[in-house]
Amino acid sequence: MYTNYLKIFLILLCFFVSQQIFAQSITGKVIDKSTQQAISGVNVLIEGTYIGTSTDAEGKFKLNAKEQNVLVFSFVGYQNQKITVTTNVSDLEIVLEESTTFTNEVIVSASRIEEKIMQTPVTVEKISQKTLETSASTEIMNMLARFKGIDVSSSSMLYSAITTRGFNSVKSERMIQLADYMDYASPSLNLYAGNAFGVSDIDLESVDVIYGANSALYGANAFNGVILFHSKDPFKKEGLTVNVRGGSRNLADMSLRFAKKLGNRFAFKIVAGYMEANEFIADNQD
């Protein structure tokens, strides 16, 4: 009986050794083309099978195969790459290139979920940075009067009230104004002093205006509409920007913006401005 067990053991041992002899050992490393850094977690599969592995923290992999194989390397954000291996190889260096995917413009301000801007269920007026730069107005609210459905009432050079449903007043009643999705109304009076507490013109990326009852998702106090001011991202808009302009009534307007990216997780920006002008002053002595 022990002889039979010994025979079975020897047969299994020979089978195991033969598998190791005829198996191909493939080793290598996967790196990024632009940074030349190792990529961990890359999927390495033998094409047409479920046999495979993945790269470790150092981007290295090891795979056993029995014959000529086509290896497929894939990773999220990178282009797939195939390589044919015919013999025992080691220290392969696989270079993966990032893939670029272009998507359509999306807007998240209308219904608080991502949607294509042309498919949102409400009317949204999107004003780009280029349009803002060509404006001759001294105050962003006055410039918005050029667009359809927007009514602006100016009380001074820096104080303007806006509405999208008529019945305008000097207080922008029931018209929500948000700077980077933060409401900047006066905490005591619940009023908006134009754009005095909003985003500075030099730091303004774009403006979204949601008309009238379309803004119902923002609450009952958004009965007249919502204005969303988007500031420039310091991760994408770096450098120093200076703007100086003047005009009638001794207008002098100066603003400065400096943004700097410090690594992939931290950035800062400094925005400052100064403006002075002569308002209309009643001086009739009759």
Description:
By secondary structure, the protein is mainly beta. The protein contains three helices and 19 strands. The protein has a five-stranded mixed sheet with strand order 10-15-16-13-14. The chain has a four-stranded antiparallel sheet with strand order 3-2-5-6, with no helix packed on it. The chain has a three-stranded mixed sheet with strand order 4-1-7. It is elongated, with a radius of gyration of 32 Å. About 3% of the residues have low confidence.
Entry keywords:
single chain, 286 residues, mainly beta, five-stranded mixed sheet, four-stranded antiparallel sheet, 3 helices, elongated
Cα shape: elongated
Order of helices and strands: HEEEEEEEEEEHHEEEEEEEEE
Q: What portion of the residues fall into strands of 2 or more residues?
A: 35-45%
CA radius of gyration is 32 Å
Write down how many β-strands occur, each being a DSSP E stretch of 2 or more residues: 19
Distance between the termini: 131 Å
Query: What is the arithmetic mean of pLDDT?
Result: 76
Uncertain regions spanning at least 5 consecutive residues: 15-22
Major sheet, described briefly?
5 strands, mixed
